[in-house]
Design goal:
- The complex is a heterodimer of chains A (about 210) and B (about 375).
- Chain A folds into two domains: about 120 residues, D-Maltodextrin-Binding Protein, domain 2 (3-Layer(aba) Sandwich); about 90 residues, Periplasmic binding protein-like II (D-Maltodextrin-Binding Protein, domain 2, 3-Layer(aba) Sandwich), CATH 3.40.190.10.
- Chain A has nine helices and eleven strands.
- Helix content of chain A is about 30%, strand content about 30%.
- Chain A is an alpha/beta fold and about 210 residues long.
- Chain A is elongated.
- With about 375 residues, chain B is α/β, with parallel strands linked by helices.
- Chain B is elongated.
- The two termini of chain B are about 40 Å apart.
- In chain B, about 35% of the residues are buried.
- Classes of the chains: A alpha/beta (about 210), B alpha/beta (about 375).
- The interface between A and B is medium-sized, with 26 and 22 residues.
Chain lengths: ~210, ~375
């Protein structure tokens, strides 16, 4: 049996047509309000497990799943050992960016030796980004509703994923700097990859269908 | 006794598990002793520069080593996170030019767990072979690593071979910072970061099997890399001849940072159970393997205890002491004074007119 860990929510919704047209087709289609967390595939040797995006790496690193889909944001911010990274997919495309209130003088404040308060889900990536330009970022680790932090004075800036920019706009924030492009990447359990590489490469290729390269 | 929880990621091994781990560790050491490996027991802590002699200050080993100031003298010391550098030090102190075969088994500690759910303590067992020639040395350590895992009771073994020398040769032209970043990205096989790397490096990282290895054109590679491929081919041929499933994974695993020759991981099923490699320095060759026996506990069948003989604890009776000495000589274990456990014993040591005697089954009722 080969187990594929998929992140629930946005990525799973985006992956529906990909799954339906691949060897990972679920035996019973996944409904929008589906509550199943283990989903049998038409191919009896495969199953999908649906987990929180932040937990995919853990399932794969432990060997509970041999392969999975994880956001590059999480792979870079909190890399776990025991994982090999695979090809990028066409799913979850967005960017990691810095945003501030429209009236915040970003260029004026981001000077070598400056100190800023940054709210983010990605402490390592945010700290490294500002350190590269000699700015000390005081990190406020939040788990959601990042946009609120600059509005209520909790932070000067946020570092978060931006897809269309609509959420920022709705909250009167502006994207002031792009840090890096983000996508969903295939990940493998190290031992499984070494032992079952051909099989896992074939599934990875299906998951990566439609990606840029 | 206050009920204070253990520090995070440190656990007790309770009887069944502890016996399983102990049995596996003994099996490894006995097997190694059979091939002339002499046991050494380096201390749990030693001078930091000596523990980290082979590693960069920002290496994984350095970040895993718990560092403290020695209250006796104030020097920086570390609790070992890896026993291998200690064996290297011992070999240097012995100072022999001859072949030295050493083995060890002892606890190691990580300042931080490798992954958040993993234990910080290991029971590291392994062997180091110093001063041997490359070809026979590689063969000996690889075959012993496989035998060690068999001795522990693990099955479905395979070996993933890499070569740190080849990777080093391909990174030789890069600045130290760039080389370190490249090494990180190839260790994680991150294809997005690897886009920037040389075609040669990418071609090498893609090699997955012995067949791929044979097809590789080594003519354009730097000299060090071509030598590495010859060494790798030789080891792969040996494993094929021995019927061991062999995978080629050139960059090897993270943590192979001080190696400069063949590196390898032994897998049982899909789990990496032992690892090792060559790290020749200053004219003295060295190759070894290591396994965390504690981590293997969940993979191993529970140790079977010899059949126990139920007995009262009559330590004041010389005749009883003589009787239990005799049982110990026969390899029997006693189950003393324990109502719940003695009920499961088939044999009992009972006192009768003719002295202490072992009675079996119905007789004992």
């Amino acid at each position: 049996m080969l187990t594929v860990a998929l992140p629930k929510g946005r990525i799973l919704a985006q992956a529906q047509s990909l799954l339906a047209s691949s060897g990972l087709q679920p035996a019973d289609p996944i409904a929008a309000d589906d509550r199943r967390i283990v989903i049998a595939c038409k191919d009896a040797g495969l199953r999908l497990i649906i987990v929180r995006a932040a937990d995919v790496q853990t399932y794969v690193a432990c060997g509970a799943a041999q392969i999975g889909l994880a956001g590059r944001d999480l792979l870079l911010d909190n890399p776990l050992a025991g994982i090999y990274q695979g090809p990028a997919t066409a799913l979850g495309k967005c960017r990691l960016a810095v945003a501030a209130r429209a009236d915040y003088d970003y260029a004026g404040r981001i000077q070598r030796g400056a100190r800023v308060v940054v709210a983010t889900k990605y402490p390592r990536l945010a700290r490294n980004h500002f350190a590269r330009v000699g700015v000390h970022a005081e990190i406020v680790r939040l788990y959601g509703s990042m946009e609120l932090a600059p509005l209520v004075g909790l932070a000067d800036l946020i570092v978060d994923l931006v897809e269309t920019g609509q959420t920022l706009k709705a909250n009167r924030l502006v994207e002031v700097e792009q840090i890096m492009p983000i996508c969903t990447q295939v990940i493998f359990n190290q031992g499984a990859f070494l032992r079952r590489r051909t099989e896992l490469d074939a599934i990875a290729a299906q998951l990566a269908a439609g990606a840029d390269e | 006794m206050p009920n204070i929880p253990l520090p995070e990621r440190l656990e007790d091994l309770l009887p069944a598990e502890a016996e399983t781990v102990d049995r596996a560790a003994r099996a490894v050491l006995e097997m190694l002793a059979g091939f002339g490996y002499r046991l050494v027991m380096p201390p749990l802590a030693e001078a930091l520069p000596s523990l980290l002699a082979e590693s960069a200050s920002d290496s994984e080993l350095a970040s895993r080593t718990l560092q403290l100031t020695d209250p006796l003298g104030g020097a920086p010391i570390g609790i070992r996170a890896d026993i291998t550098p200690q064996l290297r030090r011992i070999d240097a102190q012995i100072g022999s030019k001859a072949i030295e075969r050493l083995c060890y088994c002892g606890p190691t500690l990580y300042a931080r767990p490798i992954n958040p759910w993993q234990s910080r303590e290991q029971l590291q067992a392994g062997a180091e072979l110093f001063g041997a020639q490359t070809k026979p040395g590689n063969a000996e350590i690889l075959m012993l690593a496989i035998r060690a895992m068999h001795a522990c009771g693990l099955a479905e073994l395979a070996v993933a071979l890499g070569h740190a020398g080849i990777i080093n040769a391909l990174l030789a032209d890069l600045s130290p910072e760039k080389a370190a970043a490249t090494r990180r990205s190839i260790t994680r096989r991150d294809p997005l970061a690897m886009r920037e790397h040389s075609q040669q490096l990418l071609a090498c990282a893609r090699i997955a099997s012995v067949a791929d290895l044979e097809q590789l054109n080594t003519a354009d590679l730097p000299a060090g890399a071509a030598d590495g491929f010859a060494e790798l081919n030789d080891v792969a041929a040996l494993l094929a001849e021995a019927g061991v499933e062999t995978i080629i994974d050139l960059p090897g695993l993270a943590g192979h940072e001080y190696h400069n020759g063949v590196t390898f991981a032994v897998l049982s099923g899909e789990k990496i159970v032992a690892r090792g490699g060559r790290y020749d320095r200053a004219g003295r060759s060295a190759i070894g393997f290591t396994a965390d026996i504690r981590q293997l506990a969940s993979e191993l069948a529970e140790a079977r205890r010899p059949e126990a003989v139920a007995s009262p604890a009559a330590w004041h009776d010389p005749a009883w002491r003589a009787a239990v000495d005799k049982l110990a000589e026969q390899g029997k274990q006693l189950c003393l004074d324990d109502e719940t456990r003695t009920q499961s014993c088939r044999q009992r040591l009972v006192h009768s007119e003719s002295g202490w005697q072992v009675v079996t089954g119905e007789q004992s009722q």
